[in-house]
Each structure stands twice: as C-alpha cells, then as structure tokens.
Amino acid sequence: MILSLDPNSPERRLLDEGRRTRAMTWIMAIMLFLTVLAGALGLGMFAATAQLDRELSGRLTVQIVEPIASLRDSQAAAMVATLAKVPGVARAREVDRAHLAELLRPWLGDAGLDPDLPMPAMIDVELRPGGDVAAIEQAARRIAPGARVDRHAQWLSPVRSFMTTMSWLAAGLVLLIAGATAAVVLLAARAGLDTHRDTIDVLHMLGSTDIQIARLFQRRIAFDTLLGGLAGTAAALVLIWFLQARLSAVGSEMLGGVALQQRDWFLLLLLPIGFALVATVAARVAVLRALGKRL
Question: DSSP states of the chain as a string?
Fold first, then answer.
C-alpha cells in the first residue's frame, strides 16, 4: 500500500484526530516563543560585547588632578603634545571641560559649569595595535607625577564578563529547549502509537511498511511543530521589536549595542524551521524503534 502525499487524502488523516484541539501545536508555540527570546538575548549580547571590545581596545584616559588651574592647564597641554609623540599612540586630545560638565550635570547640576570648581583635566588617548601602555604611563608621570592612567578595558571588564556570561547562558537555554522539544516529540509519537495501535495493525495487514507509517507521524508532528513554531516566533519577534524600541529610546550607547542586526532577525526566523526538522527526525526515530520492537 502506497500512502498518498496529498494532505487531504484519507490516509494522511488516519492518525490525525482532534486537529483543532491538538496540544502539540500550543506546546511548540510556547517552546519557540521562549527559544526566540533566548536566542535574541544571546545574539544581542554577543553583538554588544563585540561593540564594547571595538570601542575599548586601545583606549585609555590620563587624569591630571591639580587644584591650581593655571598649572593644570599647562600640564594638560604638555601632556597632549608629549603623548602624541609616544610610539604606538594614534591620537591624544584633551576632553573639553564643557563636555565634562555635562557628564557631571546629573550629580552636580549647573554647579559643574562654575569655572572656580576644581575639575581634573582628562586626556583621551587612542593606541595603535601593540601600543605600549607602560611607556605612556612613564611619559605622563614625568609631566605630572600625580597623573592617573585608567584603562577603559580594565574597569569595564566586569561588565564585559557579565555580558559574555549572559550570551552563553542564552545559547545554553536554546539548546536546552531544543532538547526538551525533542523529548516532547518522542512522548507524543509514542502516545500516538499506543492510541492508534489498531489502525497501525490494519495498515500493516494492508501492506504498509514501518517507514510509510513513520511518515504519517513525521508529517503530522512536523506540521504541528511548524504551525505552532511560526505562531510562537511571531509573538516573540513582536515583543523583541517592542523591547528594542524601548532600549533605543533610553539613548545609552551600551544598551544600544544590544540591538539586533538584519542578520540576527534572519537567524531567529530560521528557528521554527530548525525545530520542525528536529521534531521530524525525533518522531521518525521514535516510531521506527517502537514499531521494530513490536515485530
């Protein structure tokens, strides 16, 4: 007996009872909803970590803490001229006082604009690959013994470590949910075999092979997984788009790096197809093994 490929054929409907109330579709919708959210978190964190690495690599700040304004200004000018000549330095510039005042406005208010307020001079330094930080520290302290050299990557390393941890946690969640999906498919396939035991016996007597019967379960479970997966994916993508719009409204450069790129959206759209393939393979393996044990 050859089973028809027509989705409306009687053979395809033999094992397809209760389509409207089938729980498999809802389970897969929930699984894909959670998977897409976890995948978006992982992709966003990976992108933000890469952006942070690009911005912090070879960046450091020299602080000149000097209460006498005239001396501080002369040291800052000498510092910029000296550091620009140090091998490995791509650029050295003094951060504008007005910009520093804007950064301090949330804490000091308009008092940060007071010219009499002591404020350290900040020298922003960009290094070329292989730049010697020790040489920069020595040159800075020759001009201002109390100068402090802060490496951006050093004081932001806990943030980067946390973002990396979250990235791998999200990847682990995706794999965990994929494994749980395969387990659900195995249980559903075995339950279907028990429920339709008599129908399967009749199909065997009519000449159907185990592979042909397994295809019935494959098609039904693949359809349920894909249908539920698309619904769950659509709901998750809407939520991700909403959250990304909220992050953009915050105006933070670091949070803005979490935004998904076009490639990331494409990868998320592939998840329901991937889960449907996993479900199809799991159903085939479960049915063939169960039918083989009955012979």
Answer: -PPP--TTSHHHHTT---GGG-HHHHHHHHHHHHHHHHHHHHHHHHHHHHHHHHHHTTEEEEEE--SSHHHHHHHHHHHHHHHTTSTTEEEEEEPPHHHHHHHHHHHHGGGGG-TTS---EEEEEEEPTT--HHHHHHHHHHH-TT-EEEEHHHHTHHHHHHHHHHHHHHHHHHHHHHHHHHHHHHHHHHHHHHHTHHHHHHHHHTT--HHHHHHHHHHHHHHHHHHHHHHHHHHHHHHHHHHHHHHHHHT-HHHHTTS--HHHHHHHHHHHHHHHHHHHHHHHHHHHHHHHHH-
